[in-house]
Amino acid sequence: MPRVRLAIDPNNETAPTFKEVCIGLAGRLKEGETEDGVIEQLRANWETACQQRIVQWTEQTQEDKEKRRREEEATRLEEEEIQKAKEKRLEDEQAKIEAAKPTVKGITRNKHVDTVSTPTPSAFAVNKVKAMEYVELHYFTPESCKEAREQEFTIAQDSLAAMHINNQFVLQPVAAHRPSSKVVTDAQLSWKQVSIAKMVLIECMRKSESWLEDHITSLEMFFYQLDNSPLRWQELGEEAIIKYQAQAPGVDQVFDIGNINEEKLNRIHAKIIVEKQAEGLRAVRV
Predict the structure, then answer these.
(1) Contact at 8 Å (CB) between 270 and 222?
(2) Is 46:52 a contact under the CB 8 Å cutoff?
(3) The domain containing residue 133 runs over which residues?
(4) pLDDT tens by residue, 198-228
(5) According to the UniProt record, where is the region Disordered (predicted)?
């Protein structure tokens, strides 16, 4: 059975005199009892009960303090959670505001504008090189690099498109999957275009970190051999060299592209001469 809660501090209680008890004891004392003895017993009983109430009051006071402490702690924690939620909401709102602000790159002090602009192929061509896939040499010509720079101002760099890759749809930059509408085959390039484009292509291969240095060296040797071929000084020689490089094997072949097949090159040259002669005869007949 729960104890009755005390409403008054028993430490402030005053012991009764029990004088009224003496009046009622007249003629009712048992044998051997005296008035003083009965009063003394009553006083001792009261003091015992008072000490019990003091102990209960002390425990009750401690329990009340602990209850208030728990309530205050719970209130404090609740207020902290509310404050944290408020701060988090303000941080999120500020982050959205900051994200919406236009970003400006920092200034590099004492850095001048480049004297010569570095040719930059389109994201489509760079993506192809990284993936070690075939891409036309035209993408690395000055004309195509200029077109790529102009497109940067019309296509947002963060524009994304859904692409179906490995049986799933993924979001990738639009520019990385948009081929040029002006691309031409390698065989249609001039030797000047090939000479410039091959340097940009090789640099792009090195930056991609996808290609083995042995493969890059082989391609460099391929163009070096063509650059220094005696056929270049012969009539229609450069046209034959252009067609030869256009027919060079792709990355899935295992032989050394840097080893020029002179017989094949000479056959291409001879075929072009025959075709030109035939064209000339047709023109005369007409």
Answers:
(1) no
(2) no
(3) 116-189
(4) 999 999 999 988 899 988 998 899 999 998 9
(5) 59-88
